[in-house]
Amino acid sequence: MKERMELALGRLKEIVSEKPELPGDWRDFFVAQCRFLLLLDEAGREQAWDAAKNRRLYEDILPENYEKSWCDPAKACAAFGKEYGQLAAAVAAEMRAAIPAAVEGSTESLLIRMELLLQLYHMTERSFAEEQSAPPAEQIREVFASYVSDYYETECGLRIRQLVDASQDFALRIIRGADLSDPSYLYRFGEYITENEIELARYINALPEEKVRLMADTWTEAYRMGFITTGKDLSKKKSVNIEYPLGFERVVRLAVGNFEKMGLRNVIFRAAASVFHGYSVRKRGYYGADPNPQYTEDHREDSALILNGQLVTRHLECVTQAYEAVKELAAGHAGPAVMESFGEKPFVPVEKPEACRYSEEQRALDTRFRTENSVITNRYVPGEERSFTIIAFPVPAIGKDFPGIFDATIRINTLDYRTYQRIQASIIDALNDCVKVHVQGMKGNRTELSVSLYPLTDPSKQAIFENCVADVNVPVGEVFTTPVLKGTNGRLHVSRVFLNQLEFKDLCIEITDGLVSGYDCANYASPEQNRKYIEDHLLFHHKTLPMGEMAIGTNTVAYVTAERFGIGALLPILIAEKTGPHFAFGDSCYSHAEDVAVFNPDGKEIVARDNEISLCRKTDISKAYFGCHTDVTLPYDELGLLEGVRADGSSVCIIRSGRFVLPGTEELNKAFEEAAIN
Question: Is 307 helix (H, G, I), strand (E, B) or coil?
């Protein structure tokens, strides 16, 4: 490995210094990539991180520079034509994916990218010398495909070990050892750091110890309660993975100690982005600022250059082998504790015709991979034994009201669960007598929806809805169920919603027998572009998805807080879903754990854990799951009516004109009344 690295570095330096005899754009492309890889090697050797070095790693893809970057498919295609340009942009992006390798000292991950570039360079140099033209694009594509196929086993094995192995402690060592009073420690992670992360770290560091302790304790206690409320044995588990945005290290440090007291080792891994792992706005792991969301958007389907059935089969084999190598660690893994942030500027991507995009056949292959990959993961990290928790806090980018919003969020995250538990029990009791829920919009909202409910055989011992308080999903405030698909029909319309940091305007989803049958939005002038936007970011390339969840959010405090600060559009799904009824498309809330008995605080079993599609797991598991679950919330100010309908046609009203009217729920309206007074 050392000899290969020395050879590669020597050749990269020669290319930069000798200015190869290639046509201008080809020469500039290869020299730029060589310089970037040499920069990574230098940075990795020095391990002396500061603001200037951090910016150098990312400056070519920052919005103000992106049009000049070879990572921009538009620039690459303008220089080389679409076929070569897409390949060039994908290769440039893959060189950038070596940043974590340089930061963490992973020699092989850095080396394989160097060797890919050198192979392509020598091929191109030889072709121009012999043929006076670039090598055939198909030949370049084959080299890229071989690179992915040859090294997927290595990269996949490394990634899966990072997910479950606490000895992979690069980030944990920084969190535990850094002087958090000096935010320059953030640069040591190697993620892109802006003033937002610096200011956040300073703010958290200045908070009173009891407030930071409250944040950490709320987060970890919710995780513990998730196991208790679902009847799962936490004592059998050995590790937990922490996912969070950089800047919250003081909170994370306390959470690490809390988890250790529960007997759990902490696994903290970096969010990944490469042709091996894909690109996504929704990051898994720890992460800094996104230097340019458009870059992520442009490269999210780079694997379209090489994706075929053979590659999918190869990848699935590698996933299985990787989990097999760490099967004991995987079996002892308890699931993720996630901290999300909100307040970043919403992003609406530009759809570039030069960017790689899947064909219909490739979309089906990608869906197959995602589905089967989730099944494999569940085999080694059993869903019926693991849990999770998610909590969210604002970041300074939210604006001048950040301190007030931060304190308000702490209040929202620590509301008395007993109050909500009692109120929500009234809603559940009322809906247990019903066969469907009818939802209607108002003030221009075109929602008209009927949701079929699971039939109870013994109402004295069973419930349709789960009484959700502050366990896995913080904050408190919802009752939810898995709808019966047959008979669930109508239209869901939301004037504006943000899903995974992406804006959807006038989102309209038609539902027939529980399945998405039509969809549209108003993000673009072209109906085709709007449909594709939904297909890419809500359906995730599935031809349709079932309604996996119907819920009623009850956290009126969160809703009023968002209205007071004008941040409704910036709330994460986690909080937004508590501010009105919401409907999730994809897997149900009980995905991979449908056979685990779950009970409400009153002792009644929640029996609505399956739908007609999840039941396919008993005959063909590949048809049961989709690997996604996206909540779309209808806010109170667009909600005209939500009522339960009984078998005899009579109804019981829960919400009318955005206010709770069911006896026993009136207390939820106090937040609206207090806001009106203030």
Answer: coil
Q: How far apart are CA 22 and CA 162, in angstroms?
A: 41
- The predicted structure's pLDDT at residue 589: 86
What does DSSP say about strands 462-463 and 605-606: parallel, antiparallel, or unpaired?
parallel
Q: Report DSSP letters for 326-374, one per residue.
A: THHHHHTEEEEEEEEEE-SPPB-----TTS----HHHHHHHHHHHHHHH
Contact 71, 94 (CB under 8 A): no
For residues 300 and 537, the answer to whether their CB atoms sit within 8 Å is: no
DSSP annotation of 244 reads: E
Contacts of 106 (CB under 8 A, 6+ apart): 100, 158
Element (H, E) at 426: helix 417-431
Token pair listed for 455: 């039939």
- pLDDT over 60 at 677, yes or no: no
> Distance between CA atoms of 497 and 657, rounded to whole angstroms?
20
Which of 373, 336, 300, 389 has its CA nearest to residue 163?
A: 336
Is the pLDDT at 676 greater than 80? The verdict is no
Quick one: pLDDT at residue 281?
A: 59
379-388 residue pLDDT tens: 999 988 999 9
What is the rounded CA–CA span in Å between residue 574 and residue 494? 17
Scanning 47-136, the segments in alpha helix (DSSP H) are 51-58, 73-80, 82-96, 99-104, 107-131
- Bridge-based pairing state of the strands 478-481 and 547-553: antiparallel
Model pTM? 0.87
